[in-house]
Specification:
By secondary structure, this protein is an alpha/beta fold. It folds into two domains: about 1-115 and about 340-345, Enolase-like, domain 1, CATH 3.30.390.10; about 125-340, TIM Barrel (Alpha-Beta Barrel), CATH 3.20.20. Helices cover about 35% and strands about 25% of the residues. It has helices at about 55-70, 75-85, 90-110, 115, 140-145, 160-170, 190-200, 215-225, 240-245, 255-260, 260-275, 285-295, 305-310; strands at about 1-20, 20-35, 40-45, 125, 130, 150-155, 175-180, 205, 230, 250-255, 275-280, 300-305, 315, 320, 325-330, 335-340, 345. An eight-stranded parallel β-sheet has the order 5-6-7-8-9-10-11-12. Helix 6 (about 160-170) links the parallel strand 6 and strand 7. The longest helix is centred in the N-terminal third of the chain and has 19 residues, at about 90-110. Bound molecules: magnesium ion. Magnesium ion (MG) binds near residues 180, 207 and 208. Magnesium ion binds near residues 182, 208, 232 and 252.
Length: about 350
């Protein structure tokens, strides 16, 4: 198998605001794995907080290319995935890009969509939450109008004016909200007070209210919270799940955190067994990564796969959004198709 990669910069339609700052672009590395004239595509999306860069991904992919040379297009995908995982301890997004491309390639080779390859249920169209970027509160009515098709709104809190933001949203719409605090609340007492205030306001879940390593306070909060609390930054991989099951009600599963589809399926089975809720989320990636994540969505309580809606230079197709619902395109593989032919793929 031959691996090549292309560097890209995804541009946001609106600056993307979080409790710790805002940004206008996201670095991406696309991966292409070829075998017998068939091509599989993958994506590593690199928001700065993950600690991976285009350079660290390229370094990883060069090592992955050597590993892949030892394998024919393998029907034993677990062996390939384990060999890729063993290259370095981290590089989760880089690993995900290889995992996604391998699943896409294998699906195309076997003439099957990836969900079928993974033994999962066929994904039906599903409402996705969509992030409304907060900034100037005067612009919220206009932004809500842009998002009128979408039935669930995601709000980033963890700022000084959280209550003002929610009040402004609630003046304009009564749609269900999901709230992502991005570790932004100072302590468990402030968090509980905020959650109780949010409780009658039609909030489906609260994501990562406290610092990612603050497990004891999370367990305390989770016992008392009237709203489901789900782990994002606290939960990366399958190995985190025992700890997470003790102090959260659910997880935000993202391919870029968990190294890809192979491990995501293990996490889904574990979460179901433990009664944990599952949100499938993304890192503002393009349709290449979202087409892969969407293969899992029939097994999720909620999805937050709005990446393609937030960017204005998506080089792939693979999913569509109709009346607020995300749909896969039912092609073999992940369904991702490269439409920007100017992407410059270089052999790793
Ligand atoms: Mg989050």
């Amino acid at each position: 198998m031959k691996l090549s990669y292309a560097l890209y910069l995804l541009k946001f339609k609106h600056p993307f605001g979080l409790s710790y700052g805002s940004r206008t672009t996201t670095e991406v590395v696309y991966v292409k794995i070829e075998h017998d004239g068939i091509v599989g595509y993958g994506e590593a999306t690199l928001p700065p907080y993950l600690g991976e860069t285009q350079t660290s991904v390229i370094d990883f992919l060069k090592k992955a290319a050597v590993v892949l040379k030892n394998f024919k297009l393998s029907f034993l995908i677990e062996e390939v995935i384990s060999a890729i995982d063993a290259i370095t301890p981290n590089n989760n997004a880089a690993k995900a890009s290889v995992d996604i491309a391998l699943h896409d390639l294998l699906g195309k080779y076997l003439n099957r969509p990836v969900y079928a390859l993974l033994g999962l249920e066929k994904p039906l169209p599903k409402n996705t939450s969509v992030t409304i970027s907060i900034g100037d509160l005067n612009l919220i009515p206009e932004k809500l109008n842009e998002l009128q098709d979408y039935k669930i709104l995601k709000i980033k809190l963890g700022n000084k004016n959280d209550t003002e933001i929610i009040e402004c949203i609630r003046v304009n719409t009564d749609k269900p909200l999901v709230v992502d605090v991005n570790q932004g609340w100072a302590d468990k007492n402030q968090a509980l007070e905020m959650i109780e205030w949010l409780s009658p306001k039609n909030v489906l879940f609260i994501e990562q209210p406290l610092a990612k390593n603050n497990y004891d306070d999370m367990a305390w909060l989770n016992e008392r919270s009237p709203i489901a609390i789900i782990a994002d930054e606290s939960m990366l991989r399958f190995s985190d799940m025992d700890k997470i099951a003790k102090c959260f009600s659910g997880i935000n599963l993202k391919l870029m955190k968990c190294t890809g589809l192979f491990e995501a399926v293990k996490i889904i089975h574990y979460a179901k067994q433990k009664g944990l809720k599952i949100n499938i989320g993304c890192m503002s990636e393009s349709s290449c990564g979202i087409a892969a994540a969407a293969q899992l969505m029939q097994h999720a309580d909620w999805i937050d796969l709005d990446g393609p809606l937030l960017i204005n230079n998506n080089p792939f197709t693979g999913v569509s959004f109709k009346d607020g619902k995300l749909e896969i395109n039912n092609l073999k593989g992940t369904g991702a198709e490269l439409v920007n032919k100017e992407l410059n793929f270089v052999v790793a």
